[in-house]
Specification:
By secondary structure, the chain is an alpha+beta fold. The chain has helices at 10-19, 50-56, 82-88, 93-101, 112-120, 136-148, 165-173, 177-206, 213-226, 289-307, 316-332, 338-341, 344-349, 457-465, and strands at residues 26-31, 37-39, 42-43, 64-68, 73-77, 105-108, 125-128, 160-163, 231-232, 237-240, 261-266, 268-270, 273-274, 277-282, 385-388, 395-398, 409-412, 415-418, 431-434, 437-441, 446-448. It folds into 2 domains: 10-171, Creatinase/prolidase N-terminal domain (Creatine Amidinohydrolase, Chain A, domain 1), CATH 3.40.350; 174-465, Alpha-Beta Complex (Creatine Amidinohydrolase), CATH 3.90.230.10. The protein has 14 helices and 21 strands. The structure holds glycine (GLY) and manganese (II) ion (2 copies).
């Protein structure tokens, strides 16, 4: 009996579920990520491939998983090498891998090119992730050529190649208990980091110190590492004042000034899982009237999106709920002039809100911060409708968006970004606000796992006074 017939770990259970989808004549090849050079003699920190890690829990570079339709799992990994291990660190090695990872057999990665053709022989379908690893297609071609060279001896060469991302993306979209547990822990660490950055900002300003965006970034990193996180899940955004209106701004050196807002979009990665939180707060702990008015509008729009996030709803529902609240608020606060743009329905129809809210309200979250998984409902891919975008004039093809199911995890992250302009009330100039939480879809609603950091204006002010 294959080891993977008796799943003893979440990874073995996932391999068994995937194997059942490969077909009896199917075999899957999953490489981990490549190591990348940053500059001379210096690599980027290694980050495993998410699909590979999902199926193995193995974080070393230079490794491949081969899984067949019967559930038999073969790992190729770096061989033990005392001299290299003195320089680069411990390697598990193929001898220990079956016992530790529950795979059926393991070999040195140096044997990949000789063993793979034999493993592919007499299979019908080769599965591998398409368009994810540069050069993978040509390596598969090379192995298949070797199989073909043996057809005279009676070997059959697989006739089909299929994209492994399809079944794996669907599996990863619904998080299992092990994943949810890790994501909750990642969210807790990130929430603590945001609290720390907020409190540091107020404390340093109260003490009359020169506060820079990088000071707050340092607080985030400190708390991430203190919690055991391996990396930030993405480049942290720490944007003081008008910088918050630059959507992909990175923590830089701009001064953090009393009276301005700071937008921090940062989350840690813990054991392969991302968290993704944005908070916007007054640098010195007190919102001005106009800041608070815009903040409360974004918060109300987020509350509407949260209420729309539940099993059975569509992925687009939270976005539509957000836009409705923001559009009305933009009219009420005078960001948009009803004489020019018409009613709230016109604002939505003509996308007049887009000038101040130009991104979507969320994305799947998981091993990757923008996680995999189709945003279209699989049973309705054929139901295409067309509409003309009122801003670009482009014809957009729409398909019914994904129906939410328990165990899906998505972000809910409305915002408003007001660049200085003559036709916009001056009091709102250069204010950028986003509020982002991570939500686990449940039968009846959603669980916000990032609320370890407060979100209400009063609560943020109280926290920053503390
Ligand atoms: N931090 C990336 C995002 O919010 O989508
Ligand atoms: Mn996000
Ligand atoms: Mn974010």
């Amino acid at each position: 009996m294959s080891r993977s017939d008796t799943p003893s770990s979440p990874y073995a259970a996932r391999r068994a579920r995937l194997a059942a989808q490969l077909g009896t004549g199917g075999i899957a090849i999953v490489p981990t990520a490549s190591e990348r050079q940053r500059n001379r003699d210096n690599d980027f920190p290694f980050r495993h491939d998410s699909y590979f890690y999902y199926l193995t829990g193995f974080a070393e570079p230079n490794a491949w998983l081969v899984l067949d339709g019967s559930g038999r799992a073969t790992l190729f990994c770096a061989p033990k090498d005392l001299e290299r291990e003195i320089w680069d660190g411990y390697r598990l090695g193929p001898e220990a891998a079956p016992g530790v990872l529950g795979v059926d057999e393991a070999f040195s990665v140096a044997e990949l090119d000789t063993r793979l053709p034999r493993l592919l022989e007499n299979r019908e379908t080769v599965w591998f992730p398409f368009a994810t690893h540069a050069g993978l297609e040509s390596r598969v071609d090379g192995w298949l050529q070797k199989v073909r060279a043996r057809v005279r001896f009676g070997a059959l060469c697989p006739e089909q190649q299929r994209d492994l991302c399809g079944p794996l993306d669907e599996m990863r979209l619904i998080k299992d208990a092990h994943e949810l547990d890790t994501m909750r822990r990642a969210a807790d660490i990130s929430a603590r980091a945001h609290v720390r950055a907020m409190q540091t900002s107020a404390r340093m300003l109260r003490a009359g110190q020169d506060v820079r965006e990088y000071h707050l970034d340092a607080e985030l990193l400190h708390e991430f590492r203190l919690g055991g996180s391996q990396f930030p899940a993405y480049g942290s955004i720490v944007a003081a004042g008008a910088n918050a209106c630059v959507l992909h701004y990175r923590a830089d050196a701009a001064p953090v000034r009393a009276g301005e807002l700071v937008l921090i979009d940062a989350g840690c990665e813990l054991d392969g899982y991302a968290s993704d939180i944005t908070r916007t707060f007054p640098a010195d702990g007190r919102f001005s009237g106009p800041q608070r008015a815009l903040y409360d509008l974004v918060l109300a729009s987020q509350e509407a999106a949260v209420a729309a996030t539940k099993a059975g709803a569509r992925f687009n529902d939270p976005h539509d709920a957000t836009v409705k609240v923001l559009a009305q608020g933009m009219l009420d606060l005078g960001l948009l002039d009803a004489n020019k743009v018409g009613s709230v329905d016109d604002v939505i129809e003509q996308r007049a809100y887009f000038r101040f809210y130009m991104h979507r309200t969320g994305h799947w979250l998981g091993m990757d911060v923008h996680d995999c998984g189709s945003y279209v409902e699989p049973s309705q891919v054929g139901e295409v409708s067309e509409r003309k975008d009122p801003l670009s004039g482009e014809i957009i093809k729409n398909r019914p968006s994904r129906i939410l199911q328990p165990g899906m995890v998505l972000t809910i992250e409305p915002g408003i970004y007001v660049r200085a302009a003559d036709d916009v009330p001056k009091q709102f100039h250069d204010i950028g606000i986003r509020i982002e939480d991570d939500a686990v879809v449940t039968e009846t609603g959603c669980e916000l796992i990032t609320r370890g950091v407060p979100v209400r204006g009063d609560e943020i002010e109280a926290l920053m006074r503390a």
